[in-house]
Specification:
Blueprint: E1 7-13, E2 21-25, E3 33-37, E4 43-47, E5 61-63, E6 66-68, E7 75-77, E8 93-94, E9 96-99, E10 102-107
């Protein structure tokens, strides 16, 4: 485990997230987190909220290291949460690890 202020929580098995898809982690009183799985089985975690109009990124299309918002096709980097030019904005990222076949999320 990483030495930081966060606690790591086991969320799901890798196969519970569809390839090039997402799974939502509900958080009471906070923005939900979307877990994304790339075609090559890397996992990323972002707030499930597009910086443009608040669309659910978990409903977007995943390709490469990017998710396209379903509302207006804003392209958001899964690695940084940064919108790709010419779009502007940022979605918070969360620490996530794949340990064996289990997805772990750092929660505060």
């Amino acid at each position: 485990m990483s030495a930081d202020k966060n606690q790591w929580q086991s969320i799901c098995k890798l196969d519970d997230i569809p390839a090039q898809g997402a799974r939502v982690v509900k958080r009471e009183g906070k923005t939900d987190i979307a877990l994304f799985r790339t075609l090559d089985n890397r996992v990323f975690a972002l707030d499930d909220h597009c910086p443009h109009k608040g669309g659910a990124l978990s409903h977007g299309l995943v390709y490469g290291d990017t998710v396209a918002c379903p509302l207006h096709n804003f392209k958001i980097s899964l690695q940084t949460g940064q919108a790709q030019a010419p779009d502007e904005g940022h979605t918070p990222c969360h620490k996530v690890e794949l340990r064996d076949d289990t997805v772990w999320l750092a929660v505060d």
